């Protein structure tokens, strides 16, 4: 669905309800994604369906460690092709994400049928390869940056990913 | 026609292309950098793909990311807009390799015309008049001196791989040549990754007039008349208009014929622009070809009634041109003003920041191409173009009056945000612009006077 569908003049009441339901679903998914990617739980969250607004506020201007959505920004739905939003497990206190270095295709294993680089629950150290993102025949390794434990693998093998999309939720050792 | 198109651009041109896609019933894939995640284009698109961080080299210029985004979403065509990778032959070639239709000329044509030396050589061969200068790039200072002596002063040193008026150096006498030559080579390397430069006679007081051409893949070519882009600041266009006021009809006709000859020689397809300089005697000289849709394309659309982006898509889809040369009938006069986020009082310093109030002009025969809205943040990462205001009227005087009214209506405000609207008003009110006798030196004259703003 497109954000450009926000207001369609001439929609009947039934169509309008259905349209609003679609709209809310997109807003909900966007909110879930923002919450998951924010790193720090927000102090407030506003959802406005009419103008399709998601507003998140923090007591202090805290930002996620990795470049990502500005938590104070109002975000309209930007439906990506492949957004399966993380369920937020990794966003618990002290959790971090390992993100996609580029847009491309995510692979969990070095080759089809091979054992995954890592699984949920595995302990990792900086530099340990966790996966691959392929962009135009270029295989870009995805590596751990801190000591920690893989809490969740957020993308399926061979799934398309966007730049900066969370791939793994990691709990650093000191927070474990 | 295509079912789904990826727009490899942002800002007002991204939205302009997206609207055309909607008109043609095609689905829109937007790509966006972190900076543009809340843009009007992203909101309007059917799908949007985050391709990288704010710096263009990691996002809008990142060819692997653009191609991956097209492959992931199943886009069949890629429209490059203007700027960014729109004239990068590599993008056109890689699209072709991956079965994605590039909405523009072939990689070979872009490559040949993007290199100013090969473009000049090709056009000279096709019979287009060139300014005196070196068709071959100057190989060193000594060769540059010899060429300069042949060409005469003042002259201009231009980057071979350049475009958009960037990286040029005007040399007024032999004493300046060595320093300016070195500067030009350094700038060319920094801007375009290619330090080759060439020399050309400089016309201090000329008119910049360009011809819009369209070519299909069956060899049909038409031109859609001229645009006068003489109002420029540091080689950047500010106000454009069509027709070129006071330019004799036979000069325009010969320029159109020359552009078609050049397009035929280059085997050009899609929308392209042949740029010329016209001196005060009516002689014109070929400068360069732009292998893309241009910022100022709306003035041609308004006077001819032809949707140029639609034609780009039709040509890319292999369809024949729907119009013939005899069917091109420009009517009335159109003027475009580029409204930029910059402060004329501080040497046109860009003024990024949040837009709190944004009221664009409207009314009869006023078109505004913009992607701004209240709440939009003007990015420091990209060019400062906020909007293009285009007015049409049966004659130039009325179009100018309508533009003055439109600019009076235009209101943009936000912390730290300034626009060049006061300066645009000054240009419109200048007697030389008002009577259409201005040349490319007009803005330099105005900016050398009292403080602006």
What does this structure look like?
The complex is a heterodimer of chains A (176) and B (453). Chain A is built from 1 helix and 10 strands; from the N terminus they run αββββββββββ. Chain A is an alpha+beta fold. In chain A, the strands form 3 sheets. Chain A has a 4-stranded antiparallel β-sheet with strand order 3-10-8-5, with no helix packed on it. In chain A, strands 7-6-4-9 form a 4-stranded antiparallel β-sheet, with no helix packed on it. A two-stranded antiparallel sheet of chain A has the order 1-2. In chain A, strand 6 and strand 7 form a beta hairpin. Chain A is globular, with a radius of gyration of 18 Å. By secondary structure, chain B is α+β, with helices and mostly antiparallel strands. Chain B has 3 domains: 100 residues, Rossmann fold; 70 residues, ATP-grasp fold, A domain (Dna Ligase, domain 1, 2-Layer Sandwich), CATH 3.30.1490.20; 243 residues, ATP-grasp fold, B domain (D-amino Acid Aminotransferase, Chain A, domain 1), CATH 3.30.470.20. In chain B, a hairpin with a 5-residue loop joins strand 12 and strand 13. In chain B, helix 4 packs antiparallel against helix 5, helix 7 crosses helix 8 and helix 12 packs antiparallel against helix 13.
């Amino acid at each position: 669905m497109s954000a450009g569908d926000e207001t369609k003049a001439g929609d009947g009441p039934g169509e309008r309800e259905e349209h609003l339901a679609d709209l809310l679903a997109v807003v909900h998914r966007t909110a879930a994604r923002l919450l998951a990617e924010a790193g720090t739980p927000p102090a407030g969250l506003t959802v406005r369906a009419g103008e399709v607004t998601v507003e998140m506020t923090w007591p202090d201007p805290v930002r996620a460690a990795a470049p990502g959505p500005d938590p104070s920004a109002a975000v309209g739905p930007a439906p990506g092709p492949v957004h399966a939003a993380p369920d937020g497990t990794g966003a618990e206190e002290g959790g971090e994400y390992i993100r996609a270095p580029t847009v491309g295709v995510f692979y969990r294993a070095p080759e089809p049928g091979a054992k995954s680089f890592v699984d949920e629950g595995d302990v990792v150290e900086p530099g340990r390869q966790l996966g691959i993102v392929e962009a135009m025949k270029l295989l870009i390794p995805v590596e751990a940056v801190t000591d920690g434990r893989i809490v969740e693998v957020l993308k399926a093998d061979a799934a398309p990913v966007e730049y900066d999309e969370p791939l793994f939720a990691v709990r650093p050792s000191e927070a474990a | 026609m295509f079912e789904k198109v990826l727009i490899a651009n942002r800002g007002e041109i991204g939205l302009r292309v997206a609207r055309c896609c909607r008109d043609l019933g095609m689905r829109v894939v937007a790509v966006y950098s972190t900076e543009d995640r809340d843009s009007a284009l992203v909101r309007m698109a059917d799908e949007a793909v985050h391709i990288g961080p704010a710096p263009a080299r990691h996002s809008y210029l990142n060819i692997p990311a653009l191609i991956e985004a097209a492959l992931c979403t199943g886009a069949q065509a890629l429209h490059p807009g203007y700027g960014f990778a729109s004239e990068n032959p590599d993008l056109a070639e890689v699209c072709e390799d991956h079965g994605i239709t590039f909405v523009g000329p072939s990689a070979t044509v872009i490559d040949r015309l993007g290199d100013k030396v090969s473009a000049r050589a090709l056009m000279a061969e096709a019979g287009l008049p060139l300014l005196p200068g070196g068709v071959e790039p100057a190989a060193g200072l000594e060769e540059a001196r010899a060429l300069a002596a042949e060409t005469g002063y003042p002259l201009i040193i231009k980057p071979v791989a350049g475009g958009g008026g960037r990286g040029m150096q005007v040399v007024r006498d032999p004493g300046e040549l060595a320093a300016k030559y070195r500067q030009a080579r350094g700038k060319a390397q920094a801007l375009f990754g290619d330090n080759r430069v060439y020399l050309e006679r400089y016309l201090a007081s000329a008119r910049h007039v360009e011809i819009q051409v369209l070519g299909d893949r069956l060899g049909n070519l038409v031109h859609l008349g001229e645009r006068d882009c003489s109002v420029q600041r540091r080689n950047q266009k500010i106000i454009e208009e069509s027709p070129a006021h006071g330019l004799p009809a036979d000069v325009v006709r010969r320029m159109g014929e020359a552009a078609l000859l050049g397009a035929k020689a280059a085997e050009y397809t899609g929308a392209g622009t042949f740029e010329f300089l016209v001196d005060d005697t009516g002689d014109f000289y070929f400068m360069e070809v732009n292998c893309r849709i241009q910022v100022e394309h709306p003035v041609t659309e308004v006077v001819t009634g032809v949707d140029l982006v639609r034609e780009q898509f039709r040509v890319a889809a292999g369809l024949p041109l729907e119009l013939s040369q005899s069917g091109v009938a420009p009517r009335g006069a159109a003027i475009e003003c580029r409204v930029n986020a910059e402060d004329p009082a501080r040497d046109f310093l860009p003024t990024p920041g949040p837009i709190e109030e944004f009221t664009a002009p409207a009314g009869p025969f006023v078109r505004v191409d913009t992607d701004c809205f209240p709440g939009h943040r003007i990015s420091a990462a990209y060019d400062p173009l906020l909007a293009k205001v285009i007015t049409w009227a049966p004659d130039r005087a009325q179009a100018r009056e309508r533009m003055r009214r439109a600019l009076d209506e235009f209101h943009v405000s936000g912390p730290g945000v300034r626009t060049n609207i006061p300066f645009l008003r000054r240009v419109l009110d200048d007697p030389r612009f008002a009577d259409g006798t201005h040349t490319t030196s007009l803005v330099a004259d105005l900016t050398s006077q009292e403080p602006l703003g």
